[in-house]
Structure to design on (205 residues):
């Protein structure tokens, strides 16, 4: 246990994988860096972090309420979360290759736009509601302290990832755009990981 978090190592590994999955956040970082250089990418990174924090704490409020009010129902939420991760993995494995979505990022508004893109992602709040309960042990959980450590971990990892992605994109933007195969391979690997991760967590409950 680490601050009441069950399997902190797996928690960190899962976050790193989720950050690498192609999606609106990654596309916002790449596009902002392509248009605004390193400064644009860093501002977009901050926007993604702020959007994630809003969504995470909304999810935490719901999870904490269920944990406190309906402790017997919490196991069902954990099972549902594991099933959701496995389903998400299957969707990634079965997805067909297509054109990358076009994102209209305006200059000098990188933070605001990345924040809005993250906040308005309809799947994000569902993901966080399914993800957090998987690492909560009702017997050892420390309430807001545990959730705070989880949120801070995600923010720190997102910052490191965003800085790395910004620097990489700044030097390899055109090559990355011309080679979508890398993104598709990462998506398939992430799908396999999510299915196995969901099964592992479901069995361990």
């Amino acid at each position: 246990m680490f601050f009441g978090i069950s399997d902190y190592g797996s928690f960190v590994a899962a976050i790193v994988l989720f950050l690498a999955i192609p999606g609106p956040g990654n596309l916002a970082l790449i596009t902002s860096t392509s248009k605004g250089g390193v400064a644009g990418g860093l501002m977009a990174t901050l926007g993604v972090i702020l959007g994630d924090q809003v969504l995470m704490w909304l999810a935490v409020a719901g999870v904490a309420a269920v944990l406190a009010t309906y402790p017997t129902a919490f196991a069902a939420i954990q099972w549902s979360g594991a099933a959701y991760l496995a389903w998400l993995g299957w969707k990634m494995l079965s997805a067909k290759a297509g054109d990358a979505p076009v994102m209209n990022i305006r200059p000098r508004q990188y933070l605001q736009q990345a924040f809005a893109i993250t906040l308005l992602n309809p799947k994000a709040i569902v993901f966080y509601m399914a993800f957090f309960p998987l690492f909560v042990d009702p017997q050892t959980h420390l309430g807001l302290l545990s959730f705070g450590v989880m949120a801070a971990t995600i923010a720190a990892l997102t910052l490191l990832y965003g800085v790395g992605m910004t620097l990489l994109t700044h030097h390899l933007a055109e090559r990355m755009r011309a080679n979508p195969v890398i993104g598709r391979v990462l998506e398939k690997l992430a799908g396999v990981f999510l299915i196995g991760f969901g099964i592992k967590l479901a069995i361990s409950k």
